[in-house]
Write a structure and sequence with these properties.
This protein is of the alpha+beta class. The protein contains six helices and 23 strands. The chain binds flavin-adenine dinucleotide (FAD).
Length: 311
């Protein structure tokens, strides 16, 4: 086997400016200083120091162990629909699980077993096509199954967690574990699945007519689309709905529905979303988030919590 040359890299931050070597052997799946903007819905933000796309679970485990041994921070990027990457970018490793090994979807009677890297939309459409009810409410939620499980993605009609009966995860030390139903906890935009990687999940659904589910899915999609910023906008949903009230209505009540900072502005379709206009920076989005939170707290007494993760 050819001996590969270690990749040299620079640790970010003025106090950490020295070169280190990434463990060799992963050059074919690693890119340095990969811009993350194209992989997120906001389409802004800096680069990942190491962008790694493993092709198998074994390769993923080897990368995780090697990066952990070097003390590198490791993150997983799914569909990038619930993320804002800072302008400075992120140090360490960002894993992207798009290989077939992470994206399979299998159906067995009322059960779907799908990879954490599978697109949520594909899991939903597979269920509907196979006449399995439960997931049709989730149509239009972007991202991957792994990302959906991490935040227990859902709508008023239900969430992914209620159908999830087990999950296979990889820990930060590269160990693979199975979390059974009684170990799983799902709440509003929260789950107990906080290990490094969600590799796979089992969803137990209910038999129904595929034609009826297709109709329901189409109706849900039409309603959802009308409440979202337009598809060509760089955007993300920023705030959680606090205790039964919609974040959008609180933002409107506080008079912040047309607020903007630089090129970041509140969406005119749904005030819980921020739109990044051309030239927008992550700093502007973060400043707008803080401005909205402060104004809403001052004027309504409610502390808005962010749904989006900031890297
Ligand atoms: C237009 C739009 C509409 C939306 N509508 C809804 C909605 O109706 N309901 C709702 O709940 N959300 C909604 N969201 C938010 C978002 O789509 C969900 O949170 C989605 O489930 C995130 O999945 P992702 O793969 O894009 O995750 P990412 O944004 O890539 O990552 C989010 C978090 O999940 C982690 N993660 C991703 N994949 C994995 C994995 N395999 N293993 C471990 N961790 C992982 C990441 O590390 C990060 O911590 C919407 C967002 C947009 C932009």
């Amino acid at each position: 086997m050819a001996i590969s040359r270690p990749i040299a890299f620079r640790i970010f931050g003025p106090e950490n400016e020295f070169d280190m070597a990434f463990p060799s052997g992963f050059e074919h799946i690693t890119r340095e200083q990969e811009q993350l903007a194209p992989f997120t819905w906001f389409r802004i933000g800096g680069a990942a120091q190491f962008w790694v796309e493993p092709t198998s679970i074994e390769e993923l485990a080897a990368v995780v162990r090697a990066a952990a041994a070097e003390g590198l921070m490791i993150r997983v990027l799914g569909g990038g629909s619930n993320l804002l990457v800072r302008d400075e970018g992120v140090s360490g490793v960002v894993l992207h699980l798009t290989a077939a090994a992470f994206a399979k979807i299998e159906v067995n009677k009322k059960r779907i077993i799908a990879g954490g890297g599978a697109k949520l939309g594909h899991v939903v459409s597979t269920a509907v096509r196979e006449g399995l009810a439960g997931l049709e409410q989730l149509v239009g939620i972007p991202g991957t199954l792994g990302g959906a499980l991490r935040s227990n993605a859902g709508t008023h009609g239900g969430d992914i967690g209620q159908w999830t009966t087990s999950a296979t995860v990889m820990t930060r030390s590269g160990e693979i574990l199975t979390r059974s139903k009684d170990e799983l906890r799902f709440g509003y935009r929260a789950s107990s699945l906080d290990e490094l990687v969600i590799l796979e999940a089992t969803l137990d659904l209910e038999m129904a007519s595929s034609a009826m589910l297709t109709k329901q899915m189409q109706q849900t999609w039409i309603l959802k689309k009308a409440q979202l910023p337009s598809a060509d906008q760089a955007t993300s949903c920023i705030f959680k709905n606090p205790g039964g009230v919609s974040a959008a209505s609180l933002i409107e009540e506080a008079g912040m529905h047309s607020a903007r900072v630089g090129n970041a502005e509140v969406s005119d379709r749904n005030a819980a979303y921020i739109v990044a206009q051309p030239g927008c920076t992550s700093r502007e989005v973060i400043e707008l988030i803080e401005l909205i939170r402060k104004t809403v707290a001052d004027r309504t007494g409610v502390d808005l919590e962010t749904a989006i993760e900031i890297w």
